[in-house]
Design goal:
Number of strands: 3
Radius of gyration: 12 Å
Strand content: 5-15%
Number of domains: 1
Strand order of the largest sheet: 1-2-3
Largest sheet: 3 strands, parallel
Number of helices: 2
Oligomer: single chain
Structural class: alpha/beta
Length: about 80
């Protein structure tokens, strides 16, 4: 069953405090081309590492690499993290 809820590009973030994102496995659901997936992952790494956000409750639906989890260390306001 494909999960289509949430956002898959950092520029889609609009200040939500509760957010579901998809970092990988987007091509299998026809959301993007497979060739775009590596760049999307790099964009999320940069976003989570450097952006100041309001996210308190974050869910990541996809295979979650350790590098993505590590990039969340800068999100000190984060209260809840759910990983698939």
């Amino acid at each position: 069953m494909a999960v289509t809820a949430g956002i898959w590009l950092p520029e889609q973030y609009e200040g939500e405090v509760e957010l579901t994102v998809r970092v990988a496995q987007l091509a299998s659901d026809g959301v993007v081309k497979r060739s775009q997936e590596p760049q999307i992952e790099l964009d999320w790494l940069a976003f989570f590492s450097t952006a100041s956000t309001n996210i308190l409750d974050l869910t990541i639906w996809s295979r979650v690499k350790q590098s993505i989890v590590d990039s969340l260390s800068g999100q000190s306001q984060l209260k809840k993290l759910t990983l698939k």
